[in-house]
C-alpha cells in the first residue's frame, strides 16, 4: 500500500477507472454476443441488434477502450453476418 498521499489517490482513481472501463467493455461484448446469437438463429430483429452492437463498439472506441482499427474490423465482421 502506498504511503504518499498522491499515490494513495492515484490507486483510488485507477480502481474507479478500471471498474468503469470493465463495465463498458462487458456491455459492449454482451451486445455483440446478442447480435451473433440472433444471427446464428436467424432472428427478425437483427437490424436493431446490429445497430446496438455498432453503437456499443463506437462508444468503446471513442472512450479509448479499443483501438480504431479493431472497432472497424469488428463492425465489418458484424455487417458481414448481417448481410448473409
Could you please describe the fold and organization of this structure?
This protein is mainly α. Helix content is 83%, strand content 0%. The protein has three helices and no strands. The chain has helices at 5-41, 46-62, 68-83. Helix 1 packs antiparallel against helix 2 and helix 2 packs antiparallel against helix 3. The chain is elongated.
Summarize the structure.
Keywords: Ribonucleoprotein, Ribosomal protein, RNA-binding, rRNA-binding. The chain is an all-alpha fold. It has helices at residues 5-41, 46-62, 68-83.
- Return the average pLDDT rounded to an integer: 95
Regarding quaternary structure, what we see is single chain
The largest sheet is:
none
Helix and strand composition category:
mainly alpha
Q: Considering DSSP H and I runs of 4 or more, what fraction of the residues is helical?
A: over 70%
Query: Over all CA atoms, what is the radius of gyration?
Result: 17 Å
Total strands: the figure is: 0
Low-pLDDT windows of residues: none
Give helix and strand order, one letter per element, not per position: HHH
Function: Binds directly to 16S ribosomal RNA.
Keywords: Ribonucleoprotein, Ribosomal protein, RNA-binding, rRNA-binding
Biased composition (Polar residues): 15-28
Family: Belongs to the bacterial ribosomal protein bS20 family.
Amino acid at each position: 500500500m502506498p504511503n504518499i498521499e498522491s499515490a494513495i489517490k492515484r490507486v483510488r482513481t485507477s480502481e474507479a477507472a478500471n471498474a468503469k472501463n470493465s463495465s463498458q467493455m462487458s456491455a459492449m461484448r454482451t451486445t455483440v454476443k446478442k447480435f451473433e446469437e440472433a444471427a446464428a438463429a436467424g432472428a427478425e430483429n437483427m437490424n436493431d441488434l446490429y445497430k446496438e452492437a455498432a453503437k456499443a463498439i463506437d462508444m468503446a472506441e471513442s472512450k479509448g477502450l479499443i483501438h480504431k482499427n479493431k472497432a472497424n474490423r469488428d463492425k465489418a465482421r458484424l455487417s458481414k453476418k448481417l448481410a448473409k
